[in-house]
Amino acid sequence: MVSCFGFFFTYLLLPTISHAVADTLVDRLCDQWRELASYKGDLEHLADMEPPAFWRELKQITDCNAKPKFDVLSELMCTLVALPHSSACVERIFSQVNVVKTKQCNKLMCETVSNRLLARQAVKKGGACYTWNPCDNLVEDMREGRCRKRYEETLQLHFGQRTLNVDTIEFEAVDSVDDN
Q: Which domain range does residue 7 map to?
């Protein structure tokens, strides 16, 4: 079993993760992997640990010269354990972006898409939009016109004009949706 897994590690797994280990450390990594099998009896007290804790504890084992015995192997395994197992959370965000940025609204700025996603999230968290109560700072910003000023400044940044005003921007009317 150990020799079969050693073959798997050396010839199948290692080439796929070679970017995670420097070329100068590959031989040490293989040596540490083979040596780990000989420590099986000494590591039984670590068997009930979660994988990250196991590899951190393994990193603490030293040889007679107080040098870590499994430093490269434990560092690689801690890195691999830290990788996400799926990209489901990212896929959910892309799905939400597709709901916000449709064929009819395909020229939205990234900031607008981000703000719409945040607004959707806030509405979901707080219930319906008609039950939302704005904070006092937001109400004050609206009364003083600071929200509109920030919006106009954002437009100036994106369109590169100094005297741009929201009222002077012409928007195209969309009569029909082109499926191409």
A: 2-82
- Taking the complete model, does pTM exceed 0.85, yes or no? no
Asked if residue 124 and residue 59 are part of one domain, the reply reads no
- Specify the amino acid at residue 36: L
Within a domain: 61: yes
10-residue stretch averages of pLDDT, the chain, 180 residues long: 53 63 78 82 81 87 88 85 75 84 80 82 74 83 85 74 50 44
Q: Please list, in sequence order, all residues whose beta carbon lies within 8 angstroms of the beta carbon of residue 101, skipping any fewer than 6 positions away.
A: 108, 113
**Partners of residue 62 on adjacent β-strands:** 68
Residues 119 and 163 in one domain: no
Instruction: Look up residue 107 and give its two tokens.
Output: 């020229």
pLDDT for res 175: 43
In three-state secondary structure terms, 62 is strand
77 shares its domain with 98: no
Tell me the C-alpha distance between 33 and 45, whole Å. Answer: 19
Domain membership of residue 22 (yes or no) is: yes
Strand, helix or coil for residue 41: helix
